[in-house]
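Predict the 3D structure for this chain.
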Amino acid sequence: MGGMAAVAALAGCVGVEEQGTPTAGGSDGGDGGDGGDSTATQTTEPAVDPGTATTWYARSSAEGETLKGLIEEFNSQSRHTVEGSDLSDLEQKTQSAIPAGQGPQVFEWAHDWVGDYYQRGFLSDQSGNLSVSMDTFTDAAAEAAQFDGATVGLPFAAETVSLLYNKEYVDSPPETVSEMVDVMEEYHDPDNGTYGLGYPLNAYFMSGFAQAFGGYYFDPEADEMLGLSNDETVKGFQYILDTFVPYMPNDTQYGPQAAAFSEGNAPFAINGPWFLGTAREKGVDVGVTSFPTADGSEPSPYTGIQLWYFAKGMEKSESDAAAAREFVEWYVTNEEQLLADAESHGFIPVHENLAGDDDLPASVQGFSEAVQQGVPMPTHPRMGDVWGPLETGFGKALDGNMSVSDAMVEAEETIRSNWE
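Done. Predicted structure below.
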């Protein structure tokens, strides 16, 4: 899915040793300067030998190329080395490699794995080893990187899905879904390869409208944690079926839905900041706005905080762990690059001094507004069991094999059985 922010003046700034080595600065979270010069000379000898850290990530092609360049930049300056791997099956690989004592020192993903992975022993608490203060980040971002008092990663961006529009076809973004439907109706002509909307129908992407009418997927604080079969949630799923599906390509998977927009064949898409680079590379003039209201109700999409997770591999070698920490701390406090990622890829800064900055690109402000509409994905370990049955149930309703209500009752039964 998507996996899922703002930058500010550096706390625990990244310095450069006299021989050109990036190092994390003072651990008191002090001021790192004005962002134009975030270096500080350090002459102390390294505490550990040079190490080699392995990083895993799953990015779009444009984002992946940017990260490869950053890894090369870090390696050219540091006595440590970072080796990166872009994996399409990151979840499967982490769940098989880490328990076997293999896998990376750090990996990149949204914060929703925190509770599950920590309780399964996949993560390493680095609370006492970091030079970057958690005050460097917004409260929501800092909270997302911690679980049961452990700091299991560092945040660098917020994300959510929102409404994208092709400025060639849409003069101004719609404020209501009714206005959106008028535009979709005008351009939808599947016989000629054009559509009204590209909208991947997975659980994360659907969350905004599924939760628009007071419903919810999962709430660990509620008397009843599961809300899929609630009338309000069922109404949201039915709204998606009735209002959006008629204007979409028949194949509701990510690839065909994304392509409809990126190839210039749809005025709208519902997608995330990771998709901006792809659409722009194809020549689409992309606008981003918050979700329009649906019958007077405001959509409430799930939001994520992108983290560099500290994996259990941090505990195998202190020199390799030092390499991983140095890279991650350099990455999450690199103001210039964080702003560049905002411009190029729509990353929503979570560094305290840059979050909500009025000078951020318009596309980032659009996603930021959608984040304000939404709710953070729960980090509760049981949340991981919700996604699959939800999507299976919705698929049965989409195919006409079950009503939405019956499909979601069945999904909840499956989830509870998995919990048991």
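Residues 161-302+379-419 form a domain with the D-Maltodextrin-Binding Protein; domain 2 fold (CATH 3.40.190.10).
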